[in-house]
Write a structure and sequence with these properties.
The protein has 141 residues and is of the alpha+beta class. The chain is built from five helices and four strands; from the N terminus they run αααααββββ. It is 55% helix and 14% strand. Strand 1 and strand 2 form a beta hairpin.
Length: 141
Amino acid sequence: MNQFRYRLLRFFQGRYGTDQLNRGMFALAIVFALLAYFPKLGFLIFPETLLFILILLRMFSKNISKRYAENQKYLALTSPIRSFFRDILYNLRNKKAFHERNKGYKIFSCPRCGQRIRIPKGRGKVEIHCQKCSQTFIRRT
């Protein structure tokens, strides 16, 4: 058993592994797989299979610099889409802050620890003291 484990570890050493591009292709392959169950969309099995093969080839590749460059291109192309959904998720998670921004308060984040601090609007320049990390910073409300 130990010999098999050792050989397996040696095989995976120096391989690229998975990244955001692989995860995106995997999600697309899953969508194709689900759609292929519909009678008129059975032809999607072929691109789904190709995607899975491509994912495996990228994972086991030893050409790390080329895979990294591919991933960077993918991230650059999908950056606007990802930031759009990230903003939506951020607003959903921080729904209270999202609604309070129109209720006479402004929400600031501490530059040191990220703690959110609620300050009344219309006070001009104020010195804000973070109670979590004792950082003091100045912002305009």
